[in-house]
């Protein structure tokens, strides 16, 4: 369920983010800035042993997530998913009171509003809230929350624009290691329009760049076989390496 005629529309980004949760994953996942819940619910659909908490601050989008879980077609997910209406950037007791406890999650995925606040914004306020940063330290605040709520050796995944890579790496800081960065390119021979970043809480392993994901097979809008498999939950995009020893 998504708002009619307004708000962010879930698409490729959400499905790629869901694909970073590896096959066979279990435990509990937090989808931070979940919107209508597409990424978290996609992960839950593929992984029957995974519980999901959808965290969204916009009441209209959180309501869409609740309505999605109430659909008869999603009855098999309802017992494993819940919606928390809260700002991801909350910290300390405010965050814990909102339902995001310390060291409670095995996985965190996030699709922050990564467009610059200086960019031209849509007149739709609900969409603008989902697309544009509201502060220069957005990644620091969101990854601080991820570091607090993840268990030791838990995995965080972020999708963003390539120009945000330095901000993401700075925010990961000493909280996370074993960083893996995957460029996402529209077609062969084109520059990346997104990056997928995964990291492990407390790991000491080094950063690596992975082979790219190519979205379209040719000059038209037809998806590549790789993208079709990822978008439809037929395959995952698991990490290449062992997470390394925790600190």
Structural overview:
- By secondary structure, the chain is α/β, with parallel strands linked by helices.
- It has a single domain (12-231), classed as Vaccinia Virus protein VP39 (Rossmann fold, 3-Layer(aba) Sandwich).
- Helix content is 30%, strand content 23%.
- The chain contains nine helices and nine strands.
- Strands 1, 2, 3, 4, 5, 6, 7, 8 and 9 form a nine-stranded mixed sheet that branches.
- Strand 1 (27-32), helix 2 (38-46) and strand 2 form a beta-alpha-beta unit.
- The longest helix has 12 residues, at 59-70.
- The relative contact order is 0.15.
- Residues 15-180 form the Methyltransferase small domain.
- This is Methyltransferase.
- It comes from Hoeflea ulvae.
Primary descriptors:
single chain, 247 residues, alpha/beta, Rossmann fold, 9 helices, 23% strand, methyltransferase activity
In terms of topology, how is this protein built?
Blueprint: H1 12-19, E1 27-32, H2 38-46, E2 50-56, H3 59-70, H4 75-78, E3 81-85, H5 92-97, E4 105-110, H6 125-131, H7 138-149, E5 150-160, H8 165-172, E6 176-185, E7 194-201, E8 208-209, E9 213-214, H9 225-231
Pfam families: MTS (PF05175)
Keywords: Methyltransferase, S-adenosyl-L-methionine, Transferase
Domain Methyltransferase small: 15-180
């Amino acid at each position: 369920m998504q708002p009619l005629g307004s708000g962010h529309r879930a698409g490729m980004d959400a499905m790629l983010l869901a694909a970073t949760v590896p096959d066979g994953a279990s435990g509990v996942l937090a989808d931070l800035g979940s919107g209508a819940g597409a990424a978290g619910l996609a992960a839950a659909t593929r992984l029957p042993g995974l519980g999901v908490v959808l965290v969204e601050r916009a009441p209209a989008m959180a309501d869409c997530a609740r309505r999605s879980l109430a659909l008869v077609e999603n009855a098999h997910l309802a017992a494993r998913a819940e919606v928390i209406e809260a700002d991801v950037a909350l910290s300390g007791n405010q965050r814990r009171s909102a339902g995001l406890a310390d060291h409670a999650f095995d996985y965190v995925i996030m699709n922050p509003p990564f467009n610059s606040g200086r960019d031209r914004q849509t007149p739709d306020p609900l969409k603008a809230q989902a697309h544009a940063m509201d502060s220069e330290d957005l990644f620091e605040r969101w990854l601080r929350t991820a570091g607090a709520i993840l268990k030791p050796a838990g995995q965080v995944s972020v999708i963003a624009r390539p120009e945000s890579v330095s901000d993401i790496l700075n925010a990961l800081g000493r909280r996370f290691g074993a960083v893996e960065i995957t460029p996402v390119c529209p077609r062969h021979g084109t520059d990346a329009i997104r990056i997928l970043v995964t990291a492990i809480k407390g790991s000491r392993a080094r950063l690596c760049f992975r082979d790219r994901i190519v979205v379209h097979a040719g000059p038209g809008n037809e998806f590549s076989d790789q993208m079709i498999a990822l978008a439809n939950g037929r395959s995952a995009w698991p990490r290449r390496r062992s997470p390394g020893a925790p600190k």
